[in-house]
Amino acid sequence: MRTLNFDTLNIYNGNLILVNKEHPITRRDNKYAASLVSVDSRHPEILLDYIAAKELSQLINHLNADNEILPVSGYRTLSVQKQIYSDSVDENGVEFTEKYVALPNRSEHQTGLAIDLAENNGEYDFIRPYFPYSGICMQFRKKAIHYGFIERYPKGKEGITGIAHEPWHFRYVGYPHSEIMSLKNLTLEEYIKYIKNFPYKGKHLKFFNYEFTYEIFYCSLAFIQQNPLTLPANTPYQISGNNIDGFIITLRKIK
Questions:
Q1: What is the pLDDT of residues 139-155, one digit of tens each?
Q2: 93: buried, middle or exposed (CB in 10 Å: 19+, 13-18, 0-12)?
Q3: 231: part of which helix (H) or strand (E)?
Q4: CA-based max dimension of the chain
Q5: Cα separation of 166 and 163, whole Å?
Q6: PANTHER family this protein is in (predicted)?
Q7: Cα(197)–Cα(118) distance, rounded to whole angstroms?
Q8: CA distances from 53 to 44, 108, 165, 209, 234 (A)
Q9: Cβ proximity of 241 and 12 under 8 Å
Q10: Which of 98, 124, 210, 227 is the most exposed place for a label (fewest CB within 10 A)?
Q11: Quick check: is 151 catalytic?
């Protein structure tokens, strides 16, 4: 067994952090910007977290969709998010903006884990790019969960996410979380709550694919501050904060 040491500030970092109206970005040390890369050579100004960018590139290449799917907006600084929100209020009004543009420091785009995409059919709307449920865009959706991406704001979940249906907005949460969320029809808000049913000192969530067994559990910040957390030696693992009150730990074991 091995004992992990936690930096409690990491509660605000990781692929599964929840950023919305109720849970704003807390870090002010430019942590997210440190891991950014361009999504591709043709769009050097559009940035993503380097792991998310790598997975997106592999997905686009798998679909041979380089000329059919365009990145519209990735990472945004706080100042850019403020400007986008202000411009949308001026151009579209408050009601529209509240539906489709997150408040500054409440936007996933500031984490580098979110990407807006458009079907390449000429010009596109920056706020609401066209990304239909057909053709190459639908193929992208079907494959996205295998590369760690979810459609973040699905239809029928507006009351949970606080954002209108956005077919173009995808969020990197990592695998296998993306597939579990898809299979259970859960938004990130719902998934964060669901995982709390599987505490460190209790039954863990298990997910199987053709190659690995994944074991997932939640550990509260309060628990970690008072107790050591041990994991099996030589087992790959990932840790993500939830941006609220704890950490989600994922173990990957060969079947």
A1: 999 999 999 999 999 99
A2: exposed
A3: strand 229-231
A4: 58
A5: 8
A6: D-ALANYL-D-ALANINE CARBOXYPEPTIDASE (PTHR34385), PEPTIDOGLYCAN L-ALANYL-D-GLUTAMATE ENDOPEPTIDASE CWLK (PTHR34385:SF1)
A7: 37
A8: 12, 15, 24, 23, 27
A9: yes
A10: 210
A11: no
- In the numeric block, the tokens 């597939």 are attached to 179
Q: What's the confidence (pLDDT) of residue 31?
A: 63
The answer to whether residues 241 and 7 touch, using CB atoms and an 8 Å cutoff, is: no
- Does residue 206 sit in helix, strand or coil? strand
| Active-site residue, selected from the candidate residues 108, 119, 151, 166 | 166
| Cβ atoms of residues 182 and 170 within 8 Å | no
Handedness of CA 82, 83, 87, 90 (dihedral sign): positive
How far is the C-alpha of 12 from the C-alpha of 156, rounded, in Å?
28
pTM, rounded to two decimals: 0.96
HSE-CB of 250 using CA atoms within 13 angstroms: 21
- Which domains are present in the chain? 1-16+191-255 (3.30.200.180), 20-172 (3.30.1380.10)
Structure tokens at 167: 């077919």
- Partnered with residue 118 across adjacent β-strands are 70
Tokens of 249: 């730990």
Cα-trace Rg, the chain: 18
